[in-house]
Amino acid sequence: MKHDIYRIEGLCVEFQRWGETVAAITDLNLTVHEGDWVMLIGHNGSGKSTLLRVFAGQIPPTRGTVCFKGRALDGIDCVQTACPTAFLVEQNPLASASAKLTLLENLQVADEDSTKLTRGERTKKYEEMLASVGLARQMNQLARYLSGGERQLLSLLIAQLRPSPVLLLDEPLAALDPTKEQLCMELIAGLNRAGRTVIHVTHDHELAFSIGSRVIELERGYLKSDASIPKCSNDNGEEVSL
Hints:
The protein is an alpha/beta fold. 27% of the residues lie in helices and 31% in strands. Helix 2 crosses helix 3, helix 2 (103-110) runs parallel beside helix 4 and helix 4 packs parallel to helix 5 (178-193). It starts with a strand and ends with a strand.
């Protein structure tokens, strides 16, 4: 039986814009279970990115409650992408990394186990991680010089090293070439198989229903639909949508 990781009750999020109150999310009730791969879909302005930042602890509720494993999220120390409960990969992937550090240094900073390793062990570990996504040759290059797709791959490698049980993704595949997109998807799927709960914003409805275990659609801040996607195993033992 899956346990709840997030429980949202009566969530309303409002902003002040040009002197008027604008409702981004209205009266939302939602539960996310541990190990889910939730796809958030909806048109621009539907509230997807706002909800993602509520999960990250970056935007407080105007009204209602947001609980993480039974604790009010506003009572947990959340600081941008270093939130201990969730790791956020934004559309600007360098928000999850330091542009002034090399790829190797970014991974070392993210890795809580780095102090337990010798310098040689650390280099070998991070080189193998970077090699798995074709970035080994750039390991001593500053992150600022990476392409957009390479930056997303680095962000997801950093996510692998963080202890956060939840991975939040805001359009992580936007503008990536097919090769980088496939590598990103493999990294995300691996994190989910390892037990990480994934909440993934996308505009791609076909993608959402093909990979997610659950698809939630928002419309103008309201919950429009919430569907579980049944899975079966293919000949390689991989889960695929029915």
